[in-house]
UniProtKB/TrEMBL annotation:
GO CC field: cytoplasm
NCBIfam families: T6A_YjeE
GO MF annotations, alphabetized: ATP binding; metal ion binding; transferase activity
Annotated organism of origin: Candidatus Magasanikbacteria bacterium RIFCSPLOWO2_01_FULL_40_15
Protein known as: tRNA threonylcarbamoyladenosine biosynthesis protein TsaE
GO biological process: tRNA threonylcarbamoyladenosine modification
Main location: cytoplasm
Family label: Belongs to the TsaE family.
Keyword annotations: ATP-binding, Cytoplasm, Magnesium, Metal-binding, Nucleotide-binding, Transferase, tRNA processing
Annotated transmembrane regions: none
A Pfam family matched in the record: TsaE
């Protein structure tokens, strides 16, 4: 387990970029935290490190964004947000399971509680919580 303290969005992006350095492809990353903790900011850092050139926006309304990546054998970053979904069936219907564990893909799931029944046993869990003041975030990464 690794713990980090971020004092800005720039620091959160930097932490995510360093974390991305260990990714080889096939990883499933759950991203938990309250609204406004910086989950999408963390994904921006991952995306930058993975060579994604498209702008990263929260997929709250799109549910799932598949972004071309270019880092070694990683060719896609799949960013999913289950916040608006009602059940696991809706997640299956959008093809979420097609990308899980694909060796050339990294999957990141915001609000992963709804997806638990679909997730593989081996995941990386990232939790972001509010810190002592409005700019501070506590980031915990568990493999």
């Amino acid at each position: 387990m690794a713990k980090f303290i971020s004092k800005s969005n720039t620091e959160t992006i930097s932490i995510a970029k360093k974390f991305a350095g260990i990714l080889l492809g096939g990883e499933v990353i759950t991203l938990s935290g309250e609204l406004g903790t910086g989950k999408t900011v963390f994904v921006k850092g991952l995306a930058q490190a993975l060579g994604v050139t498209k702008e990263i926006v929260s997929p709250t309304f799109a549910i799932m964004n598949m972004l071309p990546a270019n880092k070694n054998k990683i060719k896609a970053l799949v960013h999913v947000d289950t916040y608006r979904l009602k059940n696991e069936k809706e997640l299956k219907e959008i093809g979420f399971g097609d990308y899980l564990g694909a060796s050339d893909t990294v999957c990141v799931i915001e609000w992963p509680e709804l997806a638990k029944g679909l997730l593989p046993k081996k995941i990386i869990s990232v939790t972001i919580t509010h810190g002592d003041n409005q700019n501070v975030r506590n980031i915990t990464i568990k493999k």
